[in-house]
Amino acid sequence: MREKKSNFNLKAANVGAKFLKTFNLVDQLNQITCPTLVAGGRNEWITPVEASILIAEKIPDSELIIFEKYCHYLFIDENRESISRISSFIKERIGLQENAALPKLH
Going by C-beta distance under 8 Å and a sequence separation of 6 or more, which residues neighbour residue 75? Predict the structure, then answer.
């Protein structure tokens, strides 16, 4: 049996982690002009609830959902609930119906 080797690069991960600690676009969130769903998790370890609330407050036409069992992998932690809530948001705010053709992007 062949040993599987990982492509994980610890040096690159450390550089990325340092970058993410200083990366901040909060002052530009008010420039988002489309309906936006901000999905946060009660147990999220990368973006805490307080950060999700701040993001939703800064984006003009946004809606915030906090998933109670969500840690970091929304589609795993709360699969059916997340799909249902996202689908509802799209139908209500963007107006797409099931099996409708998506608008063309220019």
Answer: 82, 83
